[in-house]
Amino acid sequence: MWHEELYNVLNIINNLILTLIGVPFSIQMIYTLLGWLKKKTWKKTEKKSKICVLIPAHNESDVIYDTVKRIFDRQNYPKDLFDVYVVADNCTDNTAELARKAGAKVYIHNDPDPKHHVALYAIKYGYEMILKEEKKYDFSIRLDADNYINDDFFSLMNDCYNSGVEMARPYESSLNITQNKYTKASGLYYAFDSRFASRVRERLGIDAHVNGPGSMISMDIISKYGYDAKGICDDAEFTNNRMLNGYRLHYVEDAVVYEDVPSTFKDTYAKNKRMGAGVSRLFFTGGMKMLGKFFTTFRFSYLEMVLQYFFCMICVLLCTWIPLFYIYDVIYLALCGTGVIATSLGASYYYDLLITTIIIIVCCITFLFVFVGLLQAFILVMVDYKKLGAKSRKELISGIFIYPLFSVIYIMTLCLGIFSKPKWTKVNRNKVNFNGDNN
After folding, report:
1. At what angle do helices 321-337 and 300-319 cross, to 10 degrees?
2. pTM (2 decimals)?
3. What separation, in Å, do the N-terminal and C-terminal C-alpha atoms of the chain show?
4. CA 56 to each of CA 177, 179, 353, 379: distance values in angstroms, whole numbers, following the listed order
5. Is 5 exposed, middle or buried (0-12, 13-18, 19+ CB in 10 A)?
6. Which tops the pLDDT comparison, 117 or 120?
7. pLDDT at residue 439, as a whole number
8. Beta partners for residue 88, in sequence order
9. What is the pLDDT of residues 279-294, one digit of tens each?
10. Residue 438: is its pLDDT beyond 80?
11. CATH: 3.40.710.10, 3.90.550.10, 3.40.50.150, 3.30.565.10. Which one for 1-439?
12. d(C-alpha 182, C-alpha 259), whole Å
């Protein structure tokens, strides 16, 4: 019958989609299982490089002073060998004044074009101005206006740089993980890539995902290419362009950057609007180039990066096709299994198929909830609670149980972000006392 033929066709499509979804999720599980590999460390050196810190800031008077002041007060690195530059971008508050007061060198950047009101243009302008400075630098560290870094951050990145690395990322942790149950779950989620995926990539020789705050970039690269990103996810686009140029991307696990993590659903959506919109566009541009590079070099890093881009597309499928198909699947099998709809195979066949389908759905949800959810969060709390900004493991226990729910929220907001047009607006910062271990 026609409805049986339709059901069979939809099942074939669903199986193909499940296969597409399963590949990156399988890699994630492999990262979890291999997360016990010994972390990579870099040989300590007496040679001290010159460092510039670049911070783009749009109306960040709430946090910019503390961020800059903490760098000068806490870094175990010669103060004459680093400078902090703040780009006050289209600010209507006293961000520039406070940044100068804290010790930063400030560039004022005003661009009336609303299409340019994103961090990309502030960063591009900042690098252009730094390259014109009389003082020359060996490498740069990009930070956001609310970031803290651990006390040995510059020294650790210096060791990495002097080992021959030109681009690297740090461990990304949370400033406010203990603020409430939601921040505990979101902080654990964002730390997964640092503790598991990034460590395994580094140990297996796969390129790190160098984007976001704390990224280290050789100034030779900046001088050669400029800041040539054009999209919303400028940091990922820039480093991926360098991958295509043949550069290797690395991970410095003991260098920790602490950032404000979402404390509400609204905050998560605001954060993921930019990410979803940017990465989805990057998938159709840089992703295709990465795929082509993989088939000419057979370097797994290119394929792994494509799968990272593809995660955004998977989020759309998880929020649309998957729930709609299985709702249809259960209803159709129930109607056929009870004889409401006449079938060629008989009601008993569809009734048995209904029971089997329900069991499979329950088992899959349970597996994802326990293994991908609770187990990952539990391991993170047990091994990295200090790096996560907590004083004890007990502080983060409640976050373990909310972690699976946050994963669902993250996927939903990332999906919504794909269809949005984010702008660089003032972020509502969470006022909390930072408990992170900076030793």
Report:
1. 50
2. 0.87
3. 69
4. 24, 26, 57, 34
5. exposed
6. 120
7. 43
8. 57, 108
9. 777 777 777 888 899 9
10. no
11. 3.90.550.10
12. 15
Q: pLDDT at residue 433 above 60?
A: no
How far is the C-alpha of 194 from the C-alpha of 209, rounded, in Å?
Answer: 10
* Among the ranges given (111-125, 318-332, 347-361), the one the predictor scored with the smallest mean pLDDT: 111-125
The C-alpha atoms of residue 30 and residue 22 are separated, in whole angstroms, by: 12
- Beta-carbon neighbour count of residue 12 at 10 Å? 9
Please report the pLDDT score of residue 306 as a whole number: 86
The stretch 53-57 carries a mean pLDDT of 96
The rounded distance, in Å, linking the Cα atoms of 249 and 206 is 8
Residues 6+ apart with CB under 8 A from 296: none
Label residue 254 by pLDDT band (50, 70, 90). Answer: very high
Whole-number Å distance between alpha carbons of 431 and 225: 38
Give the per-residue SS3 of the chain: CHHHHHHHHHHHHHHHHHHHHHHHHHHHHHHHHCCCCCCCCCCCCCCCCCEEEEEEECCCCCCHHHHHHHHHHHCCCCHHHEEEEEEEECCCCCHHHHHHHHCCEEEEECCCCHHHCCHHHHHHHHHHHHHHCCCCCCEEEECCCCCEECCCHHHHHHHHHCCCCCEEEEEEEECCCCCCHHHHHHHHHHHHHHHHHHHHHHHHCCCCCCCCCCEEEEHHHHHHHCCCCCCCCHHHHHHHHHHHCCCCCEEEEEEEEEECCCCCHHHHHHHHHHHHHHHHHHHHHHHHHHHHHHHHHCCHHHHHHHHHHHHHHHHHHHHCHHHHHHHHHHHHHHHHHCCCCCCCCCHHHHHHHHHHHHHHHHHHHHHHHHHHHHHHHHHHHHHHCCCCCCCCHHHHHHHHHHHHHHHHHHHHHHHHHHCCCCCCCCCCCCCCCCCCCCC
Tokens of 386: 């200090």
Rounded to whole angstroms, the Cα distance separating 352 from 383 reads 45
pLDDT of residue 164 exceeding 60, the answer is yes
| Residue 356 φ then ψ, to 5° | -60, -45
Lowest mean pLDDT among 275-279, 311-315, 318-322, 394-398: 275-279
Instruction: Tell me the two tokens of residue 4.
Output: 């049986």
